[in-house]
Design goal:
Helix content is 77%, strand content 0%. By secondary structure, it is mainly alpha-helical.
Length: 417
């Protein structure tokens, strides 16, 4: 049986050898639709807030008299916090538990989301955005561990497909909803609505998500630190981290500052119209499953190189004048990014034999660090040369990714389970 990319990663995220006490066997039966829906909602609410602010950036710049660099940094604040916390919240959850951690992180996420609505300045807005990011890994990393512990075989694949779809939907829905909410009630009231939605999500998860049956506390931080040192000199891990950084640099830089470009002449799109542009993000729902077949046939290294090249073409297409051409360019660019990300995660799962969970955490550290840099550096470049210069910075970063993939990745193929 050929494994799903994400299930390879999930099945290796949890070490269950620490305790000899008998535990119920992980579930192998097809999960109920209620559980599938709940797992999908967890993914959706985790990413509902991360990029939502992109849809109203032009408005925020006017309201707070903010510069392009400041606009980029309020996008990057959440991503920076995710980068900082990703390697550590998984280890903390190993000592505390799964479901309480997920529900608590969702409840915490609602607080800074509501406080954004009261921001008196761009600085306070950035602070609340940073606080949002602190909770996100507590949802995402722990949910992956929960699924890997409680289920086996096809059940894992089924649940992870719903989780990944929920993550993609949340990334789109946050931008889409806030853009249209601003036109109806203003962005401040819109954030109150988003906070209320997150609270409802936390209550749903608290009620419907089954409690852990397989969890065994493992506060062994010394072993984790030793593994961390080994990973920092591991070619596979370092290469994946560099690729991840380039991937999110491109995605955040592109989808943040294309808003400012399309809000200006000759397009002059409203926040609602800008929100609609983000529908291209939904292509990830289709692209991620298809990438499994590409990896099986061509291997990670070759797939990544082709995907990066496709993404470069998409970015360059956004330089055309017709709006439909820009949208096509964004769709092509995001397709390449999603395939690159899926292939890179698979690359870690296949080649890293020890401490895969920590290796994945380091990957996400590199991934979100790249996103933070993308928001900051693209803001500086956009202020100096508008969208055209920003595009060339994005292409430069993608060339770096291409070099990393060409010289850093070992040609390997995804193995069968």
């Amino acid at each position: 049986m050929t494994p799903n990319i994400v299930s390879i990663l999930v099945n290796n995220t949890v070490n269950q050898t620490q305790n000899n006490a008998p535990l119920p066997s992980p579930q192998t039966n097809s999960p109920s639709w209620v559980l599938k829906l709940t797992i999908g909602l967890i993914g959706m609410f985790a990413f509902l807030q991360v990029y939502s602010i992109q849809a109203v950036l032009p408005v925020l710049m006017v309201d707070f008299s903010a510069t392009e660099v400041q606009a980029g940094m309020i996008v990057g604040a959440t991503i920076m916090a995710i980068a900082i916390m990703s390697p550590f919240l998984g280890m903390l959850s190993d000592a505390v538990g799964r479901k309480p951690f997920i529900v608590g992180a969702l409840l915490f996420l609602a607080i800074p989301t509501a406080l954004i609505a009261q921001s008196p300045s761009i600085g306070w807005l950035g602070l609340w955005r940073f606080m949002q990011g602190l909770s996100v890994p507590g949802i995402t990393v722990v949910t992956i561990a929960y699924i890997g512990e409680e289920f086996e075989g096809r059940a894992v694949t089924d649940l992870m497909s719903f989780y990944v779809s929920g993550c993609v939907l949340g990334g789109f829905l946050g931008r889409f909803l806030l853009g249209h909410l601003h036109e109806l009630i203003g962005w401040r009231a819109g954030y109150y609505v988003m906070a209320a939605m997150t609270l409802v999500g936390a209550m749903w998860v608290g009620k419907m998500l089954p409690s852990s049956q397989q969890f065994v506390a493992n506060p062994n931080f010394r072993a984790a630190i030793q593994t961390l040192g080994e990973h920092l000199t591991n070619r596979y891990v370092v290469t994946a981290c560099l690729l991840g950084a380039c991937v999110l640099f491109s995605l955040v830089g592109c989808f943040t500052f294309i808003n400012l470009h399309l809000a200006n002449t000759p397009y002059e799109l409203s926040t609602g119209a800008l929100a609609n542009i983000f529908a291209v993000y939904l292509i990830g729902v289709v692209i991620t499953p298809l990438s499994t077949n590409l990896l099986r046939r061509f291997g990670s290294a070759r797939t990544v190189r082709v995907a990066i090249f496709i993404s470069m073409i998409g970015v360059l297409l956004t330089l055309v004048t017709p709006l439909w051409g820009v949208v096509v360019g964004l769709a092509i660019m995001s397709s390449g990014v999603f395939v690159t990300q899926a292939a890179t995660i698979s690359y870690i799962a296949v080649n890293v034999k020890k401490g895969r969970s920590l290796a994945s955490g380091l990957y996400y550290l590199g991934y979100y660090t790249g996103g933070t840099l993308g928001a900051w550096l693209c803001g500086i470049v956009y202020a100096r040369g508008q969208w055209s210069l920003t595009v060339w910075l994005l292409v430069f970063v993608q060339v770096l990714a291409l070099l990393v993939a060409s010289f850093g990745m070992v040609k390997t193929k995804s193995r069968a389970a």
